[in-house]
Amino acid sequence: MSSLNDKVAMRHMDMYMEQEEKYAEAVMSDTERLQSKLQSEMASRLAFELSTPPLRWGPWLYYRRVEEGKQYLVLCRRLVSLNEEFISHKSPAAGFDFTSGKKIEQKLLDYNQEAERFGGYAYEELSEVSPDHKFLAYTMYDKDNDYFTLSVRNLNSGALCSKPQAVRVSNIAWAKDGQALIYVVTDQNKRPYQIYCSIIGSTDEDALLLEESNENVYVNIRHTKDFHFVCVHTFSTTSSKVFLINAADPFSGLTLIWECEGLAHCIVEHHEGFLYLFTDAAKEGQEADNHYLLRCPVDASFPSRTWESVFIDDQGLVVEDVDFCKTHMALILREGRTYRLCSVSLPLPAGKGVVHLKELHPHFLPLPKYVSQIVPGPNYDYYSSTMRFAISSPVMPDAVVDYDLSYGKWNIIQQQNMLRERTRILYGTASSATISLNAKSGESVNELKSDSDNLWNDLSEFYSCEQYDVPSHDGISVPLTIIYSPKYKKENQNPGLLHGHGAYGELLDKRWRSELKSLLDRGWVVAFADVRGGGGGGKKWHHDGRRTKKLNSIKDFISCARFLIEKEIVKEHKLAGWGYSAGGLLVAAAINCCPDLFRAVVLEVPFLDATNTLLYPILPLIAADYEEFGYPGDIDDFHAIRNYSPYDNIQKDVLYPAVLVTSSFNTR
């Protein structure tokens, strides 16, 4: 498999893969009727959205829609003022009508045409409309060269601009009100290391603003939401720095505003003369377990610049994310396992210094039950007080929700309705509810008791969600979430599926999946193990499941599996495991340790040959991969890798569960 350039070897590889596929088909041949039935069931529930929910930015509504008979979407926009006649306020609400409204539509980018440019394949990584709405900068994947190509399109004429047309681009940000584009280029090992600035319409060569020669340092850029600054983040495992570029004069140089030891996540925003920094950097020499928010005046000079905390530390309340508009700050909070969403009016009171959140009179916004994740939407429009969020739950299809932070309105913009088997896009409809802006600052309004309850397509009436704390091998409690149908659940009779990931500090994906309904309605219990190494428990939770401590995440997963069987939630010998990518490593290592604990496992694009991959990377690995799984040059890390690497620890003469491995064979 490593001989990517050897055509004879690749032909042998193709033949081998065909044999593997025929073997899998033969083993599963007696389930063909069941597979067909399940496939039909699952396909009937797929949400075929013909249009994404339109996103308002200034005078425009931007959206992507299906082009009839074509494989790829089309990026479009229309003026808000012209769209009013195509909004239905009748009952039941029809919402966004992109079909009859096509006469007012402007087609910006047809990805079917992009596929013709890039060998029949269209995959976009970055897409940014300029703040003056005149240009679109975007990057498309060139599969033949395994890199992303940057293009800029004039939105008035539809023509491609002659420059910039760069390759190996990893980041883009607009400057000079849309007259200039700043972009980052990677080296041959996919390390972002150069920053260029291109003046749109100019014949001058793009100017190099920064080149990072240290092979261990990576470069990232993003613009502040008001487009006043472009922030440059340079980082390695040993240090992090943040610089500002004045967007009005991108050639005026980089100004250092922040630096710290160690690898730190840093997001900078600007609001009316103040810079806000959301970071997880060490505090006073002590490692911070979670992110926190700092601010300082924008005109302060370095190194005398003093950053002060916005909120007093509250051990029980973690700020998971923050978003800004001109009038409000939105905060995603977590109390234990409970997620909350609130807004705070801006600007913050002058002269107050660091405060408790409740002193700023936050307005808590309504959420459904059992929220597992809240993700901010693009929210491009800095001057709008309406913010969009995607709300996820194990017992509710994902909801895209617009919250108007000034007037207390909220509206579910898009959500699949599993009961009526359709997806609704309700942009501009009257089906909204009002947030009580008089809720006391400590009072949660997550579970609204009003007529608006039925706005959430919540399935908790049909499927139960339960949460447990499972003691692991060292006494640490591991969060375990299970969902099941009370109608079909029988004590100690149910088969079960246990899902885990546990890597990179990433939150385990516990969203509702329509395909799981086929299991739940047949009496299956679906469980999610939030093992160490993953997210949701702070930096220590992540670090306690990586490198030399990777065995913790594997033992956490095994403990959750045993808990399900011992508590008779799942019948013995009827438990399956499921993991993808790094989660595939977790599940595979678990069956090496306890092959008799599982009846079957599904491994999707799994990371299985950790020792060889880390020792002899055929494709470039980044620092984060070694920080996660270990540096084989470090003797302690090497022994840890050998201990958990699934491919190196397959037991001899032991009966293993049935294992289905799915992957794809390409250059990645």
Features:
six-stranded antiparallel β-sheet, 668 residues, globular, alpha+beta, single chain, Methylamine Dehydrogenase, Chain H, Rossmann fold, Peptidase_S9A
Describe this structure in words.
- By secondary structure, the protein is an alpha+beta fold.
- Among the domains are: 47-114, no CATH class; 123-266, 7 Propeller (Methylamine Dehydrogenase, Chain H), CATH 2.130.10.120; 459-662, Rossmann fold (3-Layer(aba) Sandwich).
- The strands form nine sheets. Strands 32-33-35-34-36-37-38 form a seven-stranded mixed beta sheet, with helices on one face. Strands 26, 27, 28, 29, 30 and 31 form a six-stranded antiparallel beta sheet that branches. Strands 1-2-3-6 form a four-stranded antiparallel beta sheet.
- Helix 8 (582-593) links the parallel strand 36 (575-580) and strand 37.
- Helix 7 crosses helix 8 (582-593).
Quote the distance from N terminus to C terminus: 11 Å
Per CATH, which architecture of the domain at 459-662? 3-Layer(aba) Sandwich
Q: Residue share in helices?
A: 10-25%
What oligomerization state is this entry in?
single chain
CATH superfamily of the domain at 459-662: Alpha/Beta hydrolase fold, catalytic domain
Low-confidence stretches: 88-94, 421-454
